[in-house]
């Protein structure tokens, strides 16, 4: 079973607001450069044109291109991710995820097996490798917000005091499945 492979689609209202804010931010940065330079770098017409062009390109064009072609690229990366498992271990649920390791949001896949939670990074990361969290060591699963805004985070706390912060699509399904696995494990083995 695979969870969370759909792309997040922004409606046109958010895209237009994003284009305007990006354009204003870009013009603001250019104005700061102009203010601190010895000679005038940009005319008012130049600033308006650049702000509109950059805002439209980054607020409307870039999301369109990434939505159109991004899934092809990311699905190819994700297909090659295979975790290292014990001989009697089976993958039951998998999906794309990020795991925060310090400041880096490491991209990869999260797997729920019959024994543990596994996160395996893809090759396009600074920090690579696999992280295993045994169900018997999990003490708490907490919903969290990414950047204190987006409701797509999960924090897994363990008995040894470690915290693992994940970003996933369809967070509610992941939490439900994790709780099922932990409950099943505790019922069978305790």
Description:
- With 190 residues, the protein is an alpha+beta fold.
- α1 (12-36) crosses α2 (44-79).
- It contains 3 helices and 7 strands; from the N terminus they run ααβββββββα.
- 42% of the residues lie in helices and 29% in strands.
- Strands 4-3-2-1-7-6-5 form a 7-stranded antiparallel sheet, covered by helices on one side.
- A hairpin with a 3-residue loop joins β5 (138-146) and β6 (150-158).
- The longest helix is centred in the N-terminal third of the chain and has 36 residues, at 44-79.
Write a concise keyword list for the protein shown above:
alpha+beta; 7-stranded antiparallel beta sheet; single chain
Report a brief summary of the structure.
With 190 residues, the protein is of the alpha+beta class. The chain has three helices and seven strands. 42% of the residues lie in helices and 29% in strands.
